[in-house]
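Entry 14. Ran structure prediction on the chain below.
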Amino acid sequence: MNFKFGILSAVISMLMLCHNLYAFDFERDTVACVDRVYGKNLKTVRMHLQDWEVSYPVMELYGEVGLEFSFDQIESQPQNYYYTVMHCTYDWKPSNLMFVDYADGFDENEIRNYEESQSTYVQYTHFSLNLPNDDLQLKLSGNYLLIVFVKGPEERIVCTKRFMVYENLVTVEGRVNSNVFGEFKKEYQKVDFEIIPKKYPIYNPLEELKVTLVQNFQCDESYTEMQPSFVGNDSYIFNWEDKYLFNAGNEYRYFNFNNLELNSEYVEHIEYRKPYYYIDLVPGKSKYFEPYASDEDINGGYIIKTNRRNNNNFPEIQSEYAIVRFRLNNPSMLGGASVYLYGALTNYELSSQYKMKYNMEAHCYELLMFLKQGYYNYRYVVVPEGEGAGMDRFFFEGSHKQTENDYLLFVYHRNPSESYDRLINYTKFNSRN
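Output, structure tokens:
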């Protein structure tokens, strides 16, 4: 019996040694907990609820619906991709938890679900992953970072994606309020809400609760560590007159190129020049002085879809890629500022690849994007020069209190006896409801 136990221990030790030998080695504290794509040949990196393309990457702990993550590797031999998940604090820093504290299964797994594109000029491989799965199940609520990487001599992280896992332990009631007073009344919105703990124990709400409110999942348009305006015995009220205001912005611009044989709305010209389709969008203009127009949008997101002949049942692998040209008319180049394309199509990043160039002859800003067929939202933002300069979303877009926006409320609780930020409620408010 002892001999068998010794053999078993030796086998387990050998397996652990082999796992550590080939495990991906990275410094947790150096990983940026942001949505970012590092691999240049990775496109259309997305995460949403399964079978709900326009949803946010937020799922309930032990809920019936999980998350789907996917991306395309463009025009190259498919690689072996691996993933892990890292638990984060409420303010998106690596938490102190070990993998075994927040998950069951293996801390590194291969993405084994992939398909080659079908009947497309641009060849790509579509990779997808569901969470949770047989290899990895999450045990705790909170903020998480999905880390995708490749092993081997060129071991590196290729992309990271934020997601949240929540529990319904407290009740939240509230609404979006566009009746803002004073100088903010025409352009701003705010969310008034109340947190009702019921039987969930919170002994010191001012210290233990961390409340975050985000507009349209744009993490740079959010408030964190919000303080209640009133603390009662049975509820915590957040109803400040002018402390947590959001500039309502404008509805997103949009275009649709799911049909490559016809020019749809805001598509000016489509042409195939081997090896790519080239698409010119109708030149845009400033909306700052225009009255509000209630165009339907999906708050900065995009949907993959194709109507290519009879080949449209599986848009993930049957949609074509094309080079899309964005143009924004402006009489002259802005002094001391840059213009960027902005939305989920750019990962809400302000990197150099999304910075527009000014065409002196055409008097417009231009940018080329390599995009997969579908319906896209986007807007133009201005970033002044200088360290610490903030983004101006409204210079070209304008702002109206009637604008339809989602507001995502995350309530975190750090129990003094626990070592992590538990996400005890997630509530989505909409300015039209």
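Residues 1-22 have pLDDT under 50 and may be disordered. Will compare against last week's run tomorrow.
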